[in-house]
Amino acid sequence: MQENWQSVADALRASRLAAGLSQEELAERASTSRSTIQILESGHPRKRISRKMQEIAAILGWPNDHIDQLLAGAVSGPPAKSSPPANPGAPAPRTDLPFAVAHELDTGDLVDAKVIELEDSDARIIIVVRAAEGATPEQMSKALEDWKRMQKQIIADEKALGRP
Asked: Which of 53, 64, 74, 76 could lock onto 69 through a cystine, CB 3.0 to 4.6 A?
């Protein structure tokens, strides 16, 4: 079976344009370079579907198997806008964060979260601690204890640097 990489490239380009994104904007959302987007939109055959290609497809709202279907010739073009989401109960994908960060924020059981205000700045650091999806109470407790130890180390490091 011959895989149709040009079909994938054309669909990626069409989805990007339909979303009103430049190659640069899509690259920024995907935490990659513009040249990566250009290469993906070129249609050159590949050995496999890369993780980055999957991330970009997810950012564009494609179902998980759409690239496979394009390669097999089972579908053509980007997915229809009216198609239902793959997981109707899932929150809408975050497009203001790199895919890897958004994925991690949505994966696993929440253990704790902390916002740290940076001195002399309006900036802040946000820490989210998650255990594995479906973690047992023991695993959650272990993750919380690990996080508490890390917090103590952070505080000790700050004191050593002369910060309050």
From this structure: 74
